[in-house]
Amino acid sequence: MAYIVWGFADNKDELGSLLAQGVRNASERLGNDSGNWAMHVKGLEISGYDCHATPAMALAFGTSVSGAHHKDAWVISWEVKYGRESYDETKVDKIVELQRLRTIFEALTTCRLPWVEVGFELEWYPRYLKAATGLTMALEDMYPIADRIYSLVRAFWVREFGKQWGSTMDTVPNRWFTDPLTKGPLKGAKLDKSKYQAMLQMYYAKRGWDHRGIPTKSTLTKLGLANASQELGKHVQLTA
User: pTM score > 0.85 for this model?
Assistant: First the structure.
């Protein structure tokens, strides 16, 4: 960090303003390969977990709507039990499942921690929804709603980035692929980039998004988002 701070040593306000922009923006301004040390996805710094040896958690970070946050799919504890090494469809399915559940929790404005931390059974969420609103819905009935929300949020961000958008937006920091762990029981571990990219494309297919991670016209229409499709088509070319 010394060479990064050096140019700002005489102006702490300028240094603070630079770092307040986040590590992505700061590294773009600083140059000198500082981007290799900027640990983020979509401009959001990574929350809590090193993923050299957890490809599913890496994919969860990569595909989170807001960037490298565990809120959309906290999958690391399940992955450690299931097996760290694999890059398989089961892991992709688990991430989609958790993202759906987390989206439902947010749509219901309820906390996920009772389910995650204290064993509060999922069946109670629809029961409390009925008690509060009179609506009778099974949890499975909420999955299409969750998919609609997730694809709509994705469409919003694609619109904002426009032609800059690509699968690189869902790729985790390069150091996890190139710089293996140097100590501990997992010494030498690092992610396999080609296998990560294969998982990412598998994830896109399950979401109904194209190879860039952009919802297709048919997916948006099926989810009742035809208007969003028309708007998004003004900014990027959509796949049918």
Answer: yes
Q: 19 is written with which tokens?
A: 């770092």
pLDDT tens-digit profile, the chain (240 residues): 444 444 554 566 777 777 787 777 777 787 787 777 888 888 778 888 899 999 999 999 999 988 888 888 899 999 999 999 999 999 999 999 999 999 999 999 988 888 877 888 999 999 999 999 999 999 999 999 999 999 999 999 999 999 999 999 999 999 999 999 999 999 999 999 999 999 999 999 999 999 999 999 999 999 999 999 999 999 999 999
Q: Which amino acid is it at 233?
A: G
Write down all domains in the chain, each with its CATH number in brackets. 1-38 (no CATH), 47-232 (1.10.599.10)
**Residues forming beta bridges with residue 40, ordered by sequence position:** 45
